[in-house]
Amino acid sequence: MESWISTVITWGIPAVILIVGVVIYNRLVALRNRFKNAFSQIDVQLQRRHDLIPNLVETAKKYMAHERETLENVTSARNQAVAAQKTAAADPTNGPMVDMLSKAEGMLTGALGRLFAVSEAYPDLKADGTMRDLMESLETTENKVAFSRQAYNDAVMNYQTYKESFPNNLLAGVTGFKDAALFELENPEAREAPKVQF
Predict the structure, then answer these.
(1) How far apart are CA 187 and CA 168, in angstroms?
(2) Domain 2-191, CATH
(3) Assessment of whether the complete model's pTM goes beyond 0.85
(4) Most exposed of 70, 95, 158, 170 (fewest Cβ within 10 Å)?
């Protein structure tokens, strides 16, 4: 009887700890892959957004010759957002890179908001069918970005909660699971899709 108890203690407890460790590790991997997949959905929508902006600026240039600085600000903000997007997409587990992307997208949204506000003074621009279509596509894309951002943030929250819970946090720290960053927009106007009124 004593040898049986000794065998259970010697082999059973380590086996249970190993099985629990494997289960925790596999769950961490699954949750990390979910938030990485959710980030890739944001990436797709941001790419579409970034692809629409040069066409929008080119169309606006025809009518807004005196608003060169506004158009240059949009182009510059778009270029910064594209660079930040590429960096963050390379490793969505890198929190500081996701934060940089959030800031760059906030700046781009602010620049687009100023463009839309200035465009109100140009009735010919407002009447242009191409501009109207581009702005409508952009607004639809903004809504998709917001939805994808919410799904990503939910996936990050699930991952972080599981990773930080005990005893999961012990295994996560030893096996190198990094913290994930939420995709948040800092300025309040960036939280809303640009208003398009024609």
Answers:
(1) 35
(2) 1.20.1440.20
(3) no
(4) 170
